[in-house]
Amino acid sequence: MILYIVFVLILSAILGLVHYYLWLRLVRAPDLGPRWHRIGTWMVIALAISTPVGLFISRALPRTASVAVSNFVYIWIGLAFVLLVLLAASEVVRTAVHAASLLETAPVDPERRTFLSRAIAGAVALLAVGLATTGTASALGEVAVRPIRVGLRRFPAALSGFRIAQITDVHIGPTLGRSFMAAVVARVNALEPDLIVITGDLVDGSVASLREHTAPIADLKARHGVFFVTGNHEYYSGVDDWLAELTRLGVRVLRNERVTIGTDEASFDLAGVDDWSTRGRKGEHRADLARALEGRDPARELVLLAHQPKQIVEAAAMGVGLQLSGHTHGGQIFPWGWFVKLDQPYVAGLSQHGDTQIYVSCGTGFWGPPMRVGAPAEITLIEIEPDVRSAASRPEPTSAA
Fold this sequence. Notes:
Elements: H1 2-28, H2 34-57, H3 63-102, H4 110-140, E1 144-152, E2 162-167, H5 178-190, E3 195-198, H6 207-214, E4 226-228, H7 232-236, H8 239-248, E5 252-253, E6 257-263, E7 266-272, H9 289-293, E8 302-305, H10 312-317, E9 322-325, H11 336-340, E10 349-353, E11 356-360, E12 378-386, H12 388-391
Parallel strand pairs: 1-12, 2-3, 3-4, 4-5, 7-8, 8-9, 9-11
Antiparallel strand pairs: 2-12, 6-7, 10-11
């Protein structure tokens, strides 16, 4: 509870600065008269106050009311972010006009400055509402299936075409519930994958509050099973309770361990690690890839489930063939992905890191604002085949033992 209060206080300070800037550019600068100035000012104040207050009180409300309040608050946060980005970009125009005016001998025309402010404010408001509306439709609509094909040099020919369905960052919690989870499960099952993996951040909330909403997970079906690794949000939500609940639902949790998928020569290794945020911890919860790979046969192909893409550096050094990750949401609302890049080596899509490939999903649900702008939600269908072209050119990795 203390951490939550600290989070709300920090968020409130940031929101205060953001709302002040929005007020300057959307209310004060356009100078639309005393009435709009008064109405606009009170609207900005009300929105600034309702955001942290709404986040706080939503935790104590019944589910129906909580979802309504959370949606209102998060939609405004998303819209405010889009407004902020567009207004910040418009400063380039303002600066250019100001620079040009310095070259003129005539005094600056106040009416021209006001006209520019009104034009920018109007254009930004219309564009922001349009982007927020389409972004909300994208986030709350049917999740698209994104097929990708990956060639792995040690993958057995007998399993060529093996299909893995990946979901990640579903974030069942304040705004997403049972109906969304059920729709995702039905869509995944319709793909008839050989294997299903959930790469963390499945929930935002306790088992007691979300058990009903995650129940459809029990219906996930794949010939080689359903596997899960923790994300950072599981550790905010009572990780031990969730690990027990997922096990009860028939999901195999991989915690710094490795299993065999398939039989005899027609098989490969699947490993999973605890979330990167647990590195350095003492006790049971601690990301430990070396433990997961201890004693493995380096001639066998290895697919790793790791919530955060930054695990790739260690994974590549230990001979992992393919890492499947999430965490980034692909940025969720452009251009947030630029900032995510400061923390993670890869933000979205299939990439190569040395001899190791990594696929980073944009995520299946969303966190915070129910919006996706430039980073659509996905259920990833990964089809794996042997990559005979590179098998002769790459050295075998050494064992992690």
